[in-house]
What does this fold into?
Amino acid sequence: MPEPTTPLAERPWEAVERMLDVDAALARVLAAFRPLPVEEATLLDACGRILAEDVVARNSVPPFRNSAMDGYAVRAEDVSAATWDAPVELDVSARVAAGQGGVVACQPGSAVRIMTGAPLPASADAVVRFEETDEGRGSGAPERQTVRIFRSPAVGDNVREAGEDIAVESVVARRGQRLGPADLGLLASVGCAAVPVHRRPVVAILSTGDEVVAPHEPLSPGKIRDSNAVVLAAMARAWGAEVQMLGVARDTAPDLTGRLAAGRAADLIVTSGGVSLGDYDVVKDVLRAEGEVSIWQVRMKPGKPLAFGRIGTTPLLGLPGNPVAAAVSFILYGRAAILRLAGHDEVGLPTIEVVTAECHDNRGQRRHFVRVRLERRDDGTIVARSVGEQGAGVLSSLAAADALLVIPESRDRVPAGTRLRAIPLQW
Ligand code: AMP
Ligand code: MG
It folds into this structure.
């Protein structure tokens, strides 16, 4: 068995920093992050990112008055007597298609055959849908183009006014806003093809452990496959980061040091494993040697040890190795850091109110994040039912969960039927 790189007695880690609660740990992590610089991104590349400046409409939407239906543009007063039994017949003076420029007039007593999106003739004030006309089929002589109108429209029927969606010079998207698909469409419609957004955070992910092998590698005795890297990477991506995979480091200082060096250009390095107090947990020693990293013990369950600091100038978050502890810690601290880097104002985790289905013991004054399934009752309340096994290494129970029920550290026992908050797991 290899010897630990530094004899135990010489390790400064025995002075692990005092116990923090989750809120204090989060505040310390967040204090190290600022929004990343702003860059110009094309609309599609800006999806999910935070807009850095207000965008003002250069044109109104729609830019011109147009038809909302395929039908006949008319002057409502000309057909005010029209009914199914006594239609009004009008001459058809022109036809306009979508995309057609130029001015088409609608003389009194006549109609213009018009397609959806085509500019409305100047003097027309309503559109009658094809379904409410005979589409000209009743015309007597073939050379005479007429249409019979069966319904009397109100002024404005099936007419889209210029600017009814967006007025020119109005603010279509605000600084600090997260751009979703519909926002991108608004920007496109006002002629904005690229926008200033905060740069996407780059998150480098490193697994550690002599026992850990990549998922595609064969398992030999004593080995397990790396599940943390993909879980953490998928979460980081869902929160808007780009990921850089640093692989799996052996529990030796040279291997760790080399792999960490590859992540120096990232905005955040995330490691898993090696931060507890085992003999081979060299991560913490290397972290200290390479930068300024402290380990805290956080009053939470699962996940107690958490390392945080810098390797050179790159922030590093050292998560515990147990898969559920790593995932829960990343949800609590990593998500907030990534959102802050990406420029979000609000980085807090959304929570919902739930009612516990069963009694929970929570001794030890730690905040307990219990894997639960949510069930909606007929009266609208949401019941949080434990998925069962809550071990820090049991990933299948995280996969089976809809949410993390939050049992405050102040409660050592929570009876069934208690109202608490839960963090929905939605990536
Ligand atoms: P550690 O924090 O390094 O002591 O690891 C705690 C537990 O998590 C051990 O049982 C490890 O084998 C396991 N573990 C560490 N890293 C990973 C990983 N990347 N994927 C799955 N399990 C891991
Ligand atoms: Mg380890």
In short: Residues 208-209, 273-274, 281, 321 surround magnesium ion (ligand 2) (CB under 6 Å). The first helix runs from residue 22 to 30. Residues 66-160 form a domain with the Molybdopterin biosynthesis moeA protein; domain 3 fold (CATH 2.170.190.11).
